[in-house]
Structures are given as structure tokens and as C-alpha cells.
Amino acid sequence: MIEVEHLSKSYGAVAAVRDLSFQVEKGQVVGFLGPNGAGKSTTLRILAGFLGASSGRVRIAGFDVAEEPHEARSRLGYMPETSPLYPEMKVREYLAFRAELKDVPRAQRKLEVGRCLELARVSDVAEVLIGHLSKGYRQRVGIADALLRSPPLLILDEPTAGLDPNQIREVRALIGGLGAEHTILLSTHILSEVEASCSRAIVIAKGQLVATGSIDEIRGRGRPEVRLVLRGARDAAARALGASPGIASVALEERGDLVYATATLADAEQGDEATERLVAAAVRAKLGVRSVMTHAATLEEVFADLTREEAAARSEVAS
Amino acid sequence: MRGLVAIFKRELFSHFVTPLAWVAMTAFLLLQGLHFFLIVQHFAGQLDLSADAGPVQTFFGQTMMLYLPLLFVCPVLTMRLFAEERRSGTIEPLLTAPIDTAGVVLGKYLAVVVIYAAMWLPTALYMVLLGRYGEVDWHVVGSGYLAVLAIGAGYLSIGTMTSALARSQLAAALTSAMAIMGLFMVGVGEFIFPEGVGRDLAGHVSAWAHMNDFSRGIVDSRRLVFDATVIALPLFVTVRAVDAWRLE
């Protein structure tokens, strides 16, 4: 549904997006993740045809956004960040205007506007001036607009930014319902959002792709930890655990006659075996194993790792 | 030209629900009313009138009062067109809809031209009043309104362009007012420059001479070609400017 190849975009001397490539298949709900300033909005604006790319190609449903803008744009519904709307119009008037812009035939316009009002749950404010709406409602009017003419692809830029928890839950439920019929790409920097509504995620940092895959795959890129409480000497524990295979690093802390060890595993796949070997090594070294706890990486930790590594790698290159 | 009709309608609607258009219209009509009142008072004392210098001719041609308000009214009508959409961000959903840039620009431009024409409409009452109590050369009325429309459409086109080029409404209004003033001042050169190319050029550009001709019923096609240029060129620049935002 979306094919992005070697996309770059710079504002003057500042590169906002660098050599970004990814694909979104039909029927997926994909989270577009990254810290603030990572280039999420810029990328989505290019996908929606609002900005031109400095280089690279973007295809929506097979149509190049630069070469066949009408074909590409008529196949996507786009909600910009903060959902800008005309405050002097009523919700129904605004959607009727948008429906006309999007070439909904005159005879079907009223019906289509009604359908989208209903779907985005804004029919109760249909006759209210947009300037008088709360932020949550405005956001949903933006979604209603994106839904007009039922495009196969929805691109939503931070659909839950600035909403209160109840509104977030409503918008999430809405997106969840839409996922059945539309391919959705939504950007966010809130990770629980991705875990709640997306099947896949694309993570970018500093304008570059750092990870893509299903949520589980991305979570799997984090390194699980094993936390041990051992009775014995610190040096003995360091020798025993450090020599155990499959361990990336060990942090030790001595408290009284106990040693608290946190071992980071090198590979998540062989986590269970590595844990077994770790405990066996501790027992062989005659350390008393008081407790063993495994800790899988959360999406938050993976995200922090991915985006931090990226920044660190860049500063190394720079220096 | 996709999107032209929808944008034209929305723009027209939005002008009439915001107070600014009404304020500009009221101020404009007050001025023109005063203008007409003074003219009528002036001519009421005169017994014999030559065919070329009646109140209608004076209204359209021989005073500054007709186009001085245009210097303010045209920038005020056009300043919002693009500057406001960029400030509020609504330009983003607009330009990501499956429409043409030319459709957006023309839709917005035609809306202000219609509002401008609507602004002049009540002044037709003056002509009707004059017709009641004296003789009115309707040919002159027609050519007078044609000139008013043609000159105004050019000024509105300049305003549309500055609204697309400027970042704020205020900057858009100021630059278009300055451009219109500049164009007007070049025309004044007709009375200042010595005989020669400069004077001919100034005479060709002059809105004053333009109105003088048309207020006497002389429909000079060269004037209309000039007006068409002043309409077409800024609109072309506007389309290119809007397209260029994508490349920023």
C-alpha cells in the first residue's frame, strides 16, 4: 500500500529525513514511532503529498505521489498533526466542503458525510461551529474528514496528541474499529499507543530507520536481563557469571554478605538456556542462589536503546 | 481546475460570516455615498451641463475618491486568502486533497472578485436615483462599471499574490497596498514626466487616465489588455508560489 524508497528531505542545511525506506502492506495497522523531531511529521507530509521529497520515491497504492499526485492523493485520507480546521464553519458544512473537494458525487455527498459523522462519532456536534469544539472533537472531525470517500489508506499524524485519557481511549477504539477496513499508518511518540492499536511498527530516529517489524519482533530486539541474588563473595560471583556463555555484561552490587547481580543476555532467542547456564555456573562456584528473576525488555526500553544507539553512533562518526 | 467550485463557495461563505468583509464593505459604501453626495451637491448648483461632464462622468472619472478606497479595500479583501490558511495550518488538508493548485488559486480569487463586485452593487442605486431626476447615459454607466471591475480585479490579483508570498495577513495587506500604490504612482507620472517614452508608459499604466477614458464611454481595448495582464501575471505567480511550498 505504501512503498518508500530512499526518501530524503532537507530543509536548507538541515536533513530531516535521510535515506528512509520502508513498506506498509495492505490491511496492516502500522505505528510510526520516533522521538520528537525524528522526522515523523515530515515523512507523513511527504506521503500525503503536502511536501515534496528532496530525493527518493514514494508510492501510494502503486501511484507515485510526485508524478501522479491526484491518483495517489485520492487513495489516502490524511489527518495532519493537530487537525487544523476552519473555525467559522459548522462540522457538517466542513465535511460537505471536504466531500466536494474529494470528488464525492453530489447525490451521495449528504449520505457520505452522515456516514463519516457517525463513524468518527461526531454526529452529536454536526451543527456546532468548529471554533467551539473541544480538542478531542476536533481531532475526531479530522478523522471523519480522512474517512470521506472511504480511502483504502489512512495516514494519521499523532491522532491522540494533547487529548485527555478518556479521549485517548475513544480515539484508540475508533482506530481499532477502522483497522478492519483500512490500512492505517499512524505516528506517535507514545509507546503504549502502538502496543494498543498497531500490529507493526516502524521506528525512526534522526530521520533514519532504526527498526521495523511486528511489535513482538521489535520488542525482541531488546536484551532481556536475569537478576540474581547470590550469597558469597563479589569476586567469585564476577568470575563465575562472567565466564558463563551467552552473557553480554554483568553488573554486581554487594550488600552485606549478598551479591545482587544483573546479567544482560546477549541474545533474546536463547534466553532460557543462558539463564539455566548462569544458575549452573553460580552453583558450581558454590554461591548460594537466593533468587532468580528474568526480565523481558519492554517496548520503552527497546525504543530508548534503539534511538539512543542511533544518536551515539552518529556522534562517534561525527567526532 | 479541480476544486475550483468547492473552494469558491467556501471562500465566499467564509467572507460573509467573518466581520472583516462587512466592515470593509460598510466603510467603502460610506465613502462612496459621501463621494456621490458631494458630486450631486456640486452639480445641483449648475444650470447647464455639457454632455461629457455630468455627475456620472465625475463619479467614475474625474476625482480620486473612486479609487482611493480601492487601495485599502483590495488588500483587506485578499490578505486572508493564503496567509491565514498557512498560519492556521488549514492549508495542509487543503493541498493534500485531490485538487489542482490552479483550482485553489482561481477559486479563491474569483470569490474575492465576486465580493468586490457585490460591494459596488449598491452604488448602482445612485445611477437609478440620477436617472429618476435627470438624464443618465447608460453607456457611460456601463463602461464606468467595466473599468471599476477591470482595475479592481487587477488589484485583487496582486493582493492574492502577496497573500501567498507573505507569512502574515498584515504583511500581505501592506505589500499589496504598496504594490497597488506603486502602480498608481507610476500612472501619475503621466503628468510629471516630459514628453517621451516615460510619459507614454506612465499614461498606459495610469489608472487615472483609464478611468477618465471609460467614464466618458471610451472603451479602449489597450486598457483592457493592460488590466488582463495585471490580472493574469500575479495569478500565475501565485500558482507557482503555492506549488513551491511543497519544495520548501
Question: Could you characterize what this model shows?
Answer:
The complex is a heterodimer of chains A (319) and B (248). Chain A is an alpha/beta fold. Chain A folds into two domains: 2-220, P-loop containing nucleotide triphosphate hydrolases (Rossmann fold), CATH 3.40.50.300; 225-295, Alpha-Beta Plaits. Chain A has helices at 40-48, 69-73, 91-101, 106-119, 135-147, 165-178, 191-197, 215-220, 234-243, 271-284, 299-318, and strands at residues 2-11, 14-24, 29-33, 55-60, 63-64, 76-79, 153-157, 183-188, 200-205, 208-214, 225-231, 247-255, 258-265, 288-295. In chain A, a hairpin with a 2-residue loop joins β12 (247-255) and β13. By secondary structure, chain B is mainly alpha-helical. Chain B has one domain (4-40, 53-245). Chain B is globular and about 65 Å long. Chain B starts with a helix and ends with a helix. Chain A binds chain B through residues 11, 45, 48-52, 69-70, 73-74, 78-80, 82, 84-89, 93, 97-98, 100-103, 142, 145, and chain B through 2-3, 5-7, 9-10, 13-14, 17-18, 88-90, 92-99, 246-248.
Low-confidence stretches of chain A: 315-319
Please give the alpha-carbon distance between the first and last residues of chain A. Answer: 40 Å
Label the structural class of chain A.
alpha/beta
The ordered H/E elements of chain A are EEEHEEHEHHHEHEHEEHEHEEHEH
Query: Which regions of chain B have little confidence, pLDDT < 50, spanning 5+ residues?
Result: none
Q: What's the pLDDT, averaged over the residues of chain A? A: 88
- Strand portion of chain B, in percent? under 5%
Q: Structural class given helices, strands, pairing of chain B? A: mainly alpha
CATH class of the largest domain in chain A: Alpha Beta
- Count the beta strands of chain A: 14
**Sheet having the most strands of chain A:** 6 strands, mixed
CATH superfamily of the largest domain in chain A: P-loop containing nucleotide triphosphate hydrolases
The gyration radius over C-alpha positions of chain A equals 25 Å
Termini separation of chain B: 24 Å
Tell me the helix content of chain B.
Answer: over 70%
Biggest interface goes to:
A-B, 30 and 25 residues
By DSSP, the count of extended strands of chain B is 0
Largest sheet of chain B: none
